[in-house]
Every structure is written in structure tokens, then in C-alpha cells.
Specification:
alpha/beta, 7-stranded mixed beta sheet, about 290 residues, single chain, Aminopeptidase
């Protein structure tokens, strides 16, 4: 059984969970991709796991995928499978492709970037099933277990789903507007349905106070890992955070930039803020 995730928890935990599902860099031997590896690497959420590495020092729990998102993407529904990627053994009733699969970026990627296929072949039912059973389901089971245990023990839980995004985007804004440079951070709460607005706004205001440009739900609202485990009415709050790679990463050279240390320091401050928010809300609830 391959090691598919890392889990680091505090000895004195708060109900505060961070997960990085797209920063994995251990490429399975059976991946058998045909695209250039240096292009495949650029699909990673580079070093997001490291940026949030101090989470346990402030009472949080940090869960990270070790495998790459291009092998299988745990931030998609398990049946969001691209029919163009499959051989004839897979029947249509077994899949439910969304627009992301049709664009080649579903559960298992067909393209690594426009015009660059990941494979020079189709995938079998056995290959896809093995990836789901060995990688996808264990990651989700682990995250669900942590969230349920924290909620049982504390009555509330805050989950932050961590990602990075390209510095430049030509598809920004639900209104159709385009911007050359992405915001510094995008917070996604699925239009206010996955966590209390007070938490979203608290993180927005904290990041703005550090001098960053922050957008909410535009263009990233949060996907499967936020949708599946959120239930704000019961005290289960889930929020996605996207970090502009231009803040810490040289996308041309595919390595850390000179600004990496500054961003990591600011992320540590953000983690401290989240811990204080969770502690404060638990105290207020206990005194209610």
C-alpha cells in the first residue's frame, strides 16, 4: 500500500483543520503519462503544504495529499469522469461528467494544459477503480474522520481547504470581465453556503490588513472538499483559500521566488488568526 497522505496534528488540538489536496509530488509508478514532466509539474499547488506547515504549532491539524492532482483529483466528485478518457469497458451509467470533465480536468485529467494531453492512450476501468480505491477514498475518509471527531468533541469545526492559483488569468469574474493578474487571495465559501459569513469576512479583512488584494467566490467558489463536508447550521464550516502563485513562486523557472519567506510568514500570521477565531468562538459558545 503506497503512502498517500501526511497527517500532522497538535498535542492540544483546536477544531481547526487545514488540508492541501493538490501539493503532492510523489508520482506513482503506474501513472504512465506521456506529456513532458516539466509541464505536468506545473499543475501542482507548489509548496502549499510547506506554506501551511506550522499549522500544528497553533492547535490545528494539517492533512496533505502526497500524490499529484493530475493522477487523481480528490477535489472532484468520484464519478466526475471524462468519457473521452475511457476505453469501451466503462458504461455511461457509471459516470456523471461535469463541465470540468468535458474540459479535460475532471477526476482524472485528460489534458495538463490546452493542447497538451496527459496520456497517449485511454484508461481502463481497472486503472480508474484502483486510483479511486487506493488514493481518493482514503483521503476523503481521513478528512471526514477528523472533521467528525472535532465536531463531536467541540460542537464546531472550521476546515480550510488550501490551494494556489496561476498569477495570470484570462477568465476572471462571473460577469465576464477579464483581468491580467489574479487577486492575491480568493476565498471560496460557495456563495455563503459552506461556512458562516463572519468567518469568511474575518479572513478577508485580516488579509486585507496585511496589504493583500482579496476576492470572494470570484472565480473560485470551492469544490468537492468544501461542498461535501460543510454544514454551517450544525457548526461545520468549510472555506477554500486560493493563493496567487506570483506571491511566492517563479512559474517560468518552476521554483520558489525571493518572496517565498515573506508569504510564509504572513501565512503563519493567518493561521494564528484562524486559531484565535476558533478559540474565541468556542469560548463564546461555552459562555452562552
Amino acid at each position: 500500500m503506497p503512502k498517500i497522505l501526511s497527517l500532522n496534528a497538535s498535542k492540544s488540538p483546536l477544531p481547526l483543520i487545514f488540508d492541501s489536496p493538490h501539493s503532492g509530488r510523489e508520482y506513482p509508478e503506474d501513472f504512465c503519462f506521456s506529456c513532458p514532466f516539466d509541464i505536468l509539474e506545473k499543475a501542482e499547488d507548489n509548496y502549499v503544504d510547506d506554506l501551511f506547515g506550522c499549522v500544528p504549532e497553533y492547535g490545528g491539524t494539517l492533512l496533505c495529499a502526497l500524490f499529484p492532482r493530475t493522477y487523481i483529483d480528490v477535489n472532484r466528485a468520484a464519478d466526475d469522469i471524462d468519457p473521452e478518457l475511457l476505453d469501451d469497458k466503462f458504461t455511461p451509467c457509471q459516470i456523471n461528467p461535469t463541465a470540468r470533465s468535458h474540459a479535460g480536468i475532471g477526476l482524472i485529467r485528460r489534458i495538463v494544459r490546452p493542447g497538451t494531453p496527459v496520456y497517449d492512450r485511454r484508461l481502463s476501468l481497472n486503472e480508474i477503480t484502483q486510483r479511486i480505491e487506493t488514493y481518493y477514498k482514503p483521503y476523503h475518509r481521513q478528512l471526514e474522520t477528523i472533521i467528525r471527531e472535532m465536531h463531536y468533541n467541540f460542537g464546531q469545526v472550521w476546515h480550510i481547504n488550501c490551494h494556489s492559483m496561476p498569477q495570470y488569468s484570462n477568465k476572471m469574474g462571473l460577469s465576464g470581465a477579464s483581468f491580467a493578474i489574479s487577486p492575491d487571495f480568493v476565498l471560496g465559501d460557495r456563495d455563503g453556503t459552506s461556512c458562516a459569513l463572519d468567518f469568511t469576512h474575518s479572513l478577508r479583512d485580516f488579509l486585507k490588513g496585511l496589504g493583500y488584494r482579496v476576492a470572494i467566490n470570484n472565480p473560485y467558489r470551492g469544490l468537492e472538499l468544501v461542498r461535501r463536508y460543510a454544514d454551517p447550521a450544525r457548526g461545520c464550516h468549510s472555506l477554500q483559500i486560493e493563493i496567487n502563485k506570483g506571491l511566492y513562486w517563479d512559474e517560468n523557472k518552476n521554483k520558489k521566488s525571493r518572496k517565498y519567506s515573506l508569504l510564509k510568514s504572513n501565512i503563519e500570521q493567518l493561521i494564528q488568526h484562524c486559531a484565535a477565531y476558533a478559540s474565541g468562538n468556542l469560548t463564546a459558545m461555552a459562555a452562552d
